TrEMBL record, chain B:
Protein name: sulfate adenylyltransferase
UniProtKB keywords: ATP-binding, GTP-binding, Nucleotide-binding, Nucleotidyltransferase, Transferase
The UniProt record lists the keyword GTP-binding: yes
Domain of life the protein comes from: Bacteria
Amino acid sequence: MRAPRVNAVTTATTTTTAMTSAPPVQAAGSHRLSQLDVLESEAIHIIREVVAEFERPVLLFSGGKDSVVVLHLAAKAFWPGKVPFGLLHVDTGHNFPEVLAFRDATVARLGLRLTVAKVQDYIDDGRLQERADGTRNPLQTLPLLDGIAAGRHDAVFGGARRDEDKARAKERILSLRDEFGQWDPRNQRPELWNLYNGRHTVGQHVRAFPISNWTEYNVWRYIEREGIELPPLYYAHEREVFRRDGMWRAIGPVSEPRPGEAVETRTVRYRTVGDMSCTGAVESDAASVAAVVREVALSTITERGATRADDRISEAAMEDRKKDGYF
Amino acid sequence: MTQALLSPADAGTHDGADAPGTLFRFATAGSVDDGKSTLVGRLLHDSKAILADQLESVTRTSTERGFGGDDGGIDFALLTDGLRAEREQGITIDVAYRYFATARRSFILADCPGHVQYTRNMVTGATTADAVIMLIDARKGVLEQTRRHLSVVSLLRVPHVIIAVNKIDLLDYDESAFAAVAASVRAVTADLGLGAVHVLPVSALVGDNVVDRSPRTPWYDGPSLLELLESLPVVDEVETAIEAFRLPVQLVLRPQGAVAVAPEDADSFRDYRAYAGQVASGTVRVGDSVSVAPGGATTVVTGIDFAGIELTEAFAPMSIAVRLSDDLDIARGAVIGAAGTLPESTRELTAALFWLDPRALRPGDRTLVKFGTNTVQALVAAVTGRLNLDTLELEPAGSLEVNDIGEVGLRLAAPLPIETFTENRRSGAFLVINAQDGATLAAGIVTGSGAR
């Protein structure tokens, strides 16, 4: 087995702490908000509603950019108080080590509680079986549901966005799930004005997606504006990779080249960060947040299309996973 | 009590896409098969908002289904009909949200279903829209579902209504055919009291007047659909700015020991208390006199906080926290308003309901209603009428069935500072919720309250 080699060419401007921020931009005398300010206020409103109406919310936190942005928004929503809920991470066992390190550092810095549900534990004791294709993304659902039940969580925040996928484009901001975590896309509650209905019966819970209306570009503009720190692999770095399914895959313990897949050193970055066994890198020179913003603005391919093998299984891969309780 | 913060240096890097007033929300409406999803696909395609992998996927599926014959045509509806059942049945079941931007604006598009059984999803899309595009099949003219959706649009006070007379290519771009449809729809919108309505001829399939003005309709000299969408004002600038200040309190920020600020600053936050919420309407400034409901106490705003930034003023739709000069009993559900502008609280109101549940509503039913951050029990005192979609007049009714628009009298378990939807589009809107299973039964707008 080859050892992974990761050389950060440049790390992004990460001098600011995540929980400080620029003020909302107000043009003098003009009662108009910029797009980011509107989206930010919408997200903070949603987060506060869920905290006010639910007993035991939790945030799904992977250390990926979207969950980092939701945590940043939560910190702003409750300033000067602490974020009034804990974090839950489903660790597939195939996560990037630098993302886990970032996750733990963030949790420690903010003094939050993190619960980790491990897919590996389920495989070890036989509750789950490794798939033939090696990806563990679909295996996350059971540990997730167990984690929600064990924590008696009635609301689960996630960083999912509607622009990521055509099934996610259909989901409500507050999405009711039954005791099996299932999403019923044919029978969603109407979601009217900014009045969110969080009522649920025993056993049900609600998934809450405060940044539903943000695009990948909005997220990066916000990261730039707020000076939010991210795991370094979101920025261009040299990495040993091989080509599979039209994507650059990192070499790692669970991601090894097959015969005929040549290993090369490329300058790459990650647009999404998930399971190493199904997340691809893109070739990029964008080593700073400003460069990433420019790159995203000019991209001609969607972030999941560029980087996620698990969404290529079928036209309805995401819908099928969501119906089964996936985020 | 200022927190050590970095200078907002990044604020200077904002480009046009993040300039004020550039986020515009719109929804589609109209009867089934009027071509809504096709129009949306065409709009996204022609404004270059579809990325290469999405287009490839849709093209592949279109070809597999034999769409477009040999010319490589694309079934644009596949771009938004994201559910398996939608693609299999060729219909739209639920709202699909799409995001795209032009050089002038960023858009949030809610592509809504046309089927009458999915009217609840159309209402969902319309409540947050700055504009609704109502599609009409030029060959069919105004249908019952057109009237229903226009009634929804009218009652919800959607600021801008665009009537897209679609499939004009199938009528050989005939001006008189367009004029006839335009006249009949204008008759309906006039009956409904809809003000400025934009009517334009389009072909979603071919692309006429969607992004670019079409040479095949030389008799139409107005803007294309996209040109309209790029130029109409945003709702929060139009309406909420001139309404009185309202802040429904979501929760009280009182961290006591559990502060997230630097240890050396912690002491100054020991007695911190602020009321958090999203400004529903109007503007508030530090030093303003405000009243609080319930109770009616008057006090003064001593500070407006936004995550460590002290603001001098805030306006809709900003999420903020306000500090007040007096220590009042204010909890979630309270409303802070400009002094002297809050109405007297009442337990009686009349309302128009969009009934969205298969279970009918009858006089004597008990439900929950949610106004802002307040959820209270309600008793249906009377069902006073149902909208006849042919005459657009209220007719007597003993109950409201699914997809009915009707008027009811409600009695609340606790008095609330209720305003009509005409006076305030946030304070006057509410949900009707089933107390047992939590289902959202109806969208409600206040038409009158017992206090006046």
